[in-house]
Amino acid sequence: MHELRRHERVLLIPDTKLMALSVLESGPRGRSLFSHPPRGKPFLPALGLILAGAALGAAPPAASPGGWKKVDFATATCNYISPPMGLSFSLPPGFLTLNPHHGPGAGCFWGTKEDLGRVITAEGPNFEKLVHGVFQARLSTNVAFDHATGLFSGEEELEMLLKNSGVTGGKIAHRKFGKHPGLVVTGRTREGSDLYLVYLTHGLDDNVLLINYRPATPPVPADTAVWTRFLDSIQPVN
Description:
238 residues; alpha+beta; Protein Transport Mog1p, Chain A; 8-stranded antiparallel beta sheet; 4-stranded antiparallel beta sheet; 4 helices; 13% helix; disordered N terminus
């Protein structure tokens, strides 16, 4: 087995709470393990954050108790995933959904108007000065779900991948959201950034929705509570 190596284009953003995780490569010529992976077959999850261009119109969500705002699945994913999953989400106070119109790979961003303005810039995405944090929801191009085994592709190797990427305190937990199996991944990078990811199965096929959270920079004690409350807010709809 060839040694896993980190590609030179890997982006790790120091001093931010959520990192763009590395794409690992293997083989004598550095062939990517994650380029054009076969759907439904095991492969290591590429924990690479795909980010995108210019921001256009934001959608205000509906009110819910505690100041958090409830959004339906179509709104939360900027209508990139069809048919919609039978789930709803709640966003922290003041958060909007924003479609950068860069396709399902970039997906949908959630945050305050000010933070979204900081993230989407003419020079490219910038996560260094977030006041409240930003979520991103998009269809994963690298992770599939096997309904026969109940496992996400590459799940068995994920813990080692996190360690090899310098993530400490990594936790991988199965959790069901309504009828949709999920995989929650947390940890801390060697730069001190916190990692918050949740993979959700679509249900009709092997596709997987990936949602990650970039908390405030610098970090604040409430970050973990925000993530926990967000996970608890993912509810089935009739």
